[in-house]
UniProtKB/TrEMBL annotation:
Residues annotated as transmembrane: 239-257, 262-282, 288-309, 330-355, 361-385, 420-445, 543-560, 567-588, 594-615, 646-663, 669-696
Lineage: Bacteria, Bacillati, Bacillota, Dethiobacteria, Dethiobacterales
Signal peptide start and end residues: 1-23
UniProt-listed Pfam families: Sec_GG, SecD_1st, SecD_SecF_C, SecDF_P1_head
Keyword Glycosyltransferase: no
Any single GO CC term annotated in Swiss-Prot or TrEMBL for this entry: plasma membrane
PANTHER family documented for this protein: PROTEIN TRANSLOCASE SUBUNIT SECD, PROTEIN-EXPORT MEMBRANE PROTEIN SEC
GO MF terms, alphabetically ordered: protein-transporting ATPase activity
Protein name: Multifunctional fusion protein
Compartments in which it is found: Cell membrane
Keywords: Cell membrane, Membrane, Protein transport, Signal, Translocation, Transmembrane, Transmembrane helix, Transport
Start and end residues of each Protein export membrane protein SecD/SecF C-terminal domain: 221-388, 519-698
Length: 710
């Protein structure tokens, strides 16, 4: 019987690992890669009325999108993304395009609609067409109505008389979009194009015709272009970071937990396969920050398993068997896993709503990772634990072994250190506020507006040589930075980062041309980010709104699941963590860019996750040990959660360090914020959140005592 169970378990584990490997391989081969990994162009346009007549209408935006789509189709770009953003903006993403400069020129030029006779003579232009719409002919079939201006009416009358019985070609940007036959002479300036298959076809043709006389100007608000070489380099680095992070986490779990570690490893690999499969199923686009979110979720996915394992160990200490400890451990761990993950999911959802571009990929992978980790922990880990127990691989340990698994730091009085912790945090925050008040924050172009140009020179160079190349271009105030592998000195790194005020497309092209001439680089070795001041200001407002909404949503959920004192104490801890990270960035002059907002929201989610686990213990101990003093209840709750907090922080730090080492310059500021945030979040969950709640309760108790005495 035992051998049969063992054989069944081995078969199940092998099948799980094999299926996971196949699923990951299939997903990777079919995954859509974003611009930052594949290379391509991202442009955010704002439509502006050419004649200052007021707001841009919906119809005009639709016409602009039609023109852009028509032009991009001519470039042969596979699966372009052309979407409306808000009331007057259009987002264009062209992944994998070879000639990025040509693409931007084609998208931005003015549309040209022409009516051409069979002899090649241009009869009318879009300026002669007043309107086009959907109508029906005398047989009630879909058609397109045309209305010409007075001058257009005269020209069209002459043309229909000249080309009666012949075809007139209607071209948009030199591409024929319709070729109707002239059946009668039209002198009143109103005509219809018949033989439309359906209303949708007629509507599309009418839209393209109206687009020929587009009365809006498209202004570039934000541009990001990544050459294929730099995109491939980012992909290679992120894959290295992912593999290294996964190996480190698996090795740690195996060494620390042994048999439990085997179960956690199988669950973690299955979790990754599930995440990859879900991302492929929803046709998600994987970005560099999306991969960062995926790698980071590996460290966090361990958390649910750690909570379960530590709970099982505690149940064993009470004298239970392994089988009953597994069931009781799951029952006690479920509420902590649920509440901790829901609060983190709140932060991820708000980030997804407010984020744009590659950072949204971080929110997507993080959200899917949170949901997948809950599924694998609650169902798969439980099944494997039961199966390992039935196969007698997991046995009830002897008393000595159980004692070895005792609570970490059993005699430490964490609550007694709260005053020291409060003072330490206050000092760090005051230093940070003073730094922000005097030196300010080192805001990047996402907030201030400007242009970053990243060049892969492909050979050793010095900053002085690079400045000489740029000197004739007169880029005043531009800063240059060598980037590359960690530890390389001046003249050894082969990549250059140029930060300047907002450059026009012509100025950007001039920079590329100068370095092409000097170092023989190509557009494959070039990436550019250009953000207007308008977008930077909006990002600041969106960041504040996102943080406010995340805090309100978390307060509401924690109040619902716990009580309002827990909720407000958690927010105090979150504010503490955010201020610590801001202080670090201000004091050490680390650049604050768009992804920094994603980092702050993740930190809030991570910190609240840590805090919720301890609050869950406080809530449980208040019920089971209602006769104990509050101080002892809180101390006991922190001590019993300490091992889990340290292990989760350690696994998260392991994957963060691999991303910092392998991820390249694009991710370094982002990862720096996360590293500081993980330390701050772990610290605040132990020394700030619960002690603040305790101090509040003690203050209320003292007030009630004084009231009764009076």
């Amino acid at each position: 019987m035992k051998n049969n169970r063992l054989l069944t378990l081995v078969v199940v584990v092998v099948l799980l690992l094999a299926a996971s490997g196949l699923a990951v391989n299939q997903a990777v081969n079919n995954m859509n890669l974003g611009l930052d990994l594949r290379g391509g162009v991202y442009v955010l346009y704002q439509a502006v009325e050419a004649d200052d007549t007021g707001a841009v209408g919906t119809d005009r935006i639709d016409r602009a999108i039609s023109v852009i789509r028509n032009r991009i189709d001519g470039l042969g770009v596979a699966e372009p993304v052309i979407q409306r953003e808000g009331d007057d903006r259009i987002r264009v993403e062209l992944a994998g395009i070879e000639d990025q400069q040509a693409a931007r020129e084609v998208i931005g030029r003015t549309a040209m609609l022409t009516f051409v006779g069979p002899d090649g003579e241009t009869i009318l232009t879009g300026g002669d067409l007043r309107n086009a719409g959907v109508t029906f002919d005398e047989r009630n079939r879909p058609a397109v109505s045309l209305e010409f201006s007075p001058e257009g009416t005269r020209k069209f009358a002459e043309a229909t008389e000249k080309y009666l019985g012949q075809i007139i070609y209607i071209q948009l940007d030199d591409e024929v979009i319709s070729n109707p036959e002239v059946r009668t002479i039209i002198t009143d300036g109103n005509a219809i194009i018949t033989n439309q298959e359906n209303v949708e076809e007629a509507s599309n043709l009418a839209l393209m015709l109206r687009s020929g006389a587009l009365p809006v100007e498209l202004v570039e608000l934000e541009t990001r272009a990544v050459g294929p070489t730099l995109g491939q380099d980012s992909l290679n680095r992120s894959v290295q970071a992912g593999v290294a992070g996964l190996i480190l986490v698996l090795v740690f779990m195996l060494v620390y937990y042994r048999v439990f570690g085997i179960i956690a490893s199988v669950s973690l690999i299955t979790y990754l396969a599930l995440v990859f499969s879900l991302l492929t199923a929803i046709n998600a686009t994987m970005t560099l920050f999306g991969i960062a979110g995926l790698i980071l979720s590996v460290g966090m996915a361990v958390d649910a398993n750690v909570i379960i394992f530590e709970r099982i160990k505690e149940e064993i200490k009470t004298g239970r068997t392994m089988r009953t400890s597994i069931e009781a451990g799951f029952d006690h761990a479920f509420s902590a896993i649920l509440d901790a993950n829901v609060t983190t999911l709140i932060a991820a959802a708000i980030l997804f709503y407010f984020a744009t571009g590659p950072v949204r990929g971080f929110a997507v992978t993080l959200s899917i990772g949170i949901l997948a980790s809950m599924v694998t922990a609650i169902f798969l880990t439980r099944y494997l634990l039961r199966s390992f127990n039935k196969a007698e691989i997991l046995r009830t340990p002897q008393n000595d072994a159980a004692k070895d698994a005792g609570v970490l730091a059993g005699g430490v009085n964490f609550v007694g250190m709260r005053k020291i912790a409060f003072i330490l945090s206050a000092v760090l925050i005051i230093v940070g506020i003073a730094s922000m008040g005097t030196a300010g924050m080192n805001f990047g172009i996402d907030f201030t507006g400007g242009t970053n140009i990243h060049l892969n020179i492909g050979q050793d160079f010095t900053l002085e040589e690079a400045r000489e190349v740029l000197e004739p271009l007169g880029l005043e105030g531009a800063t240059l930075q060598q980037v590359g592998a960690t530890g390389l000195g001046e003249g050894q790194a082969q990549e250059l980062l140029i930060k300047a005020h907002e450059l026009t497309p012509e100025e950007q092209d001039a920079v590329l041309a100068a370095f092409q001439e000097q170092y023989n680089i190509t557009t494959d070795d070039y990436s550019v980010e250009s953000v207007g001041a308008v977008v930077g200001g909006e990002l600041t407002r969106q960041a504040l709104i996102a943080l406010l909404l995340a805090s309100i949503a978390m307060i509401a959920y924690i109040t619902l699941r716990f009580e309002y004192r827990f909720a407000l104490s958690a927010i105090v801890a979150l504010l503490h963590d955010a201020l610590i990270v801001l202080a670090f960035f201000s004091v050490f002059r680390v650049e604050v860019n768009g992804p920094f907002i994603a980092a702050i929201l993740f930190i809030l989610g991570y910190s609240i996750n840590d805090t919720i686990v301890i609050f869950d213990r406080v809530r449980e101990n208040l019920k089971n040990r209602h006769k104990d003093k509050l101080t002892e209840v809180v101390n006991m709750s922190i001590r019993s959660s300490l091992r889990r907090s340290i292990i989760t922080s350690l696994t998260t730090l392991l994957v963060l360090l691999t991303m910092y080492i392998f991820g390249g310059v694009t991710l370094q500021a982002f990862i720096s914020a996360l590293l500081v945030g993980v330390f701050a979040g772990t610290y605040s969950s132990i020394f700030i959140a619960s002690p603040v709640w305790l101090s509040w309760k003690e203050a209320e108790a003292g007030k009630n005592t004084r009231t009764k005495t009076a």
